[in-house]
Amino acid sequence: xxxLQIPVLGWDSGYKYIKESYRHxxxxxxxxxxxxxxxxxxxxxxxxxxxxxxxxxxxxxxxLMRDSSEIIDLTDYxxxxxxxxxxxxxxxxxxxxxxxxxxxxxxxxxxxQMTAISNFKKRLEKFKVNNIQYNLKNRxxxxxxxxxxxxxxxxxxxxxxxxxxxxxxxxxxxxxxxxVINKTVRPENVRGFKDEGIIKIARxxxxxxxKEFNERFALKEVAEMLENKTIFFxxxxxxxxxxxxxxxxxYTEQTLNVLKERFAREFKRYRxxxxxxxxxxxxxxxxxxxxxxxxxxxxxxxxGNLLKGEQILANS
Length: 316
Hints:
Blueprint: E1 8-13, E2 17-23, E3 30-36, E4 39-42, E5 51-52, E6 55-59, H1 60-64, E7 71-72, H2 77-94, E8 104-109, H3 117-125, E9 126-129, E10 132-135, E11 140-144, H4 147-157, E12 165-170, E13 174-181, E14 184-194, H5 199-213, H6 219-228, E15 230-233, E16 236-239, H7 241-262, H8 264-269, E17 273-276, E18 291-293, H9 300-315
Parallel strand pairs: 1-8, 8-11, 12-17, 17-18
Antiparallel strand pairs: 1-2, 2-3, 4-6, 4-7, 5-6, 9-10, 12-13, 13-14, 15-16
Helix pairs in contact: 2-3, 4-9, 5-6, 5-7
């Protein structure tokens, strides 16, 4: 089977999902894909699982089936930094990407964690998984989370995008904001807030489940339940739709109130505020006339990272 020859990969390593975007070499259409960033350590006997830094790991669906105590709750930057190369390996292998043909991988990191960007890039530049040695030196680029979405918004909305607007990226763990003034993003106009994303809903659902089932589920398991709106426990499936809808409504109202207070000037004066990221699904566009929700918002950073990479390549 031939390897996929693409020059640029847009990659968004999130706390809930890994998002990937690339341009199909034949159709030239942008292809988007995601998988869960859930991981669990595997025993040495699980020889079909990837080995990384001396340990084997279950990923995605395999990890989800492990005991809650074995699942790594990817809720802080240190876990993300450690496992990011393993997730990148999965991306490259699952898509059969020809690494030798690949010129740039453009990724992102919350502005709340941008002081670690140098270490993050180094982790992705050189690593080893399953005896495959990756050397991606000078091919990793990184943008603050939300900045990638700017390029996607301009790509899809074109002349409809006001010169001055606000982008709010609602992620699983963080909320990142990008203030675009006269089409320009300045460093002081990018901000990141930890522990304010969908994780707030997940933690409340985690507490609810512990009371109902007398078991403390890992946050990564709860994140899956948030999406599926069900839990399968002791041979029986339980519907969580009503509980989740109430939690979502509460989160949406609280988050919008906080954002309107924090960005009072923007909500009063700007023509558009774009919501992107997985949390954008929880935002009601009718809450304000200037709110703009986008299709497939969770991919806007990976798509924007791809587009930025294509710009870099064109100018190199």
